[in-house]
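Encode chain A's predicted structure.
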Amino acid sequence: MTSTLRKHLAVAAGVAALLAAEVATAVAQPAAPSPVEQLRQDTEAIHALGISGVQARVIAPDGRQSVATSGTADLNTGRPVPSDGYFRMASTSKTLVATVILQLEAEGELSLDDTVDHWLPGAVQGNGNDGSRITIRQLLQHTSGIHDDLPGYTTPEEYYQQRHNVYSPEQLVARAMAHAPDFPPGEGWEYSNTGYLLLAMIIQKATDQPAHQEIEDRILRPLGLDQTRWMGTSPTLPRPHAKAYQLFGPGAVVDVTDQIPVDYETSFATTTRDENRFLRALLAGRLLPTRQLAEMKQTVPVSAEVQQLWPGGRYGLGLVERPLSCGGTYWSHEGGDGGYITLNGVTDNGRRSAVVSMSEARGDTPEHILDQENAASALIDHALCAGGPSTP
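Encoded structure for chain A:
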């Protein structure tokens, strides 16, 4: 073999090796997962954080549904998470309350500029609180300054002591009135469950019906949301459901399913199916006239503390606006109560939506809270971006 031939063969062998490496690299590059596979991966990633059970449902613009579950519904038996399991709606019900208030405004029954005193004379007073200076709009948007002081538990012992306590809305508002306001009305933003208790009381005053009944008559029944039920002071949930767990610290995971929600007047159990359907109907304009829906979407920045959970988040009237990684924004209102943590999202025109419900709250450290929030937010973002930035 001549040296020239050797050189040619060496070059050829080098080119072949290079091509083989390129082919191997191309083969090694995995294709982007399908939306269904991405959903499965995202639910698995949430479970991998140590969260006992996860269920998620995505509805595409053509109405097709994708469902994924991970983990277990019961740490003792290991039974699987039901894909249609009930969970406590928690603060997502604030969007229900806000929708009823805006419907009443559209009907001329009240004005968003009405003061709290106009409807509930003397309910907000003392320690610098003044119901004559706080409007319904400010209650809806968490800009009222009313300090939040709802009962809660931070240890297993407190849970067992308090889980069946029942408080009237007036008792809960009185707890808040024992504190000075966080800021003058309209001059800041701070999440206030007490503000929504007052809104439920205003609904009852304006309609002569409890807020939960107005929600059922105006939203649940017309939309056929038969898997969303007012639970009142019942400490149990409809079946099927995953048990709810709370992580209080290392080795302290407690089944907290059995409890009466503090704000029982607007306490609902729901499913991922119904929560998707409600948010889609709302953003599609099926529940509010155009002007009221536009009012709902008028947002202000949330506090620096809440920005850590909702980066770039802004709050409207019972709706949260959050940015999408593929461009644009989406609307949501998460809920967390009694071990259940649920995140959701819907595109601006209501055509693509996603809900993920987790049946364990890892609330023992700020790091665990943030990790759980980020993993669930990633699932919502991936689901809503599945069609690309131009897909509604």
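The first helix runs from residue 3 to 28.
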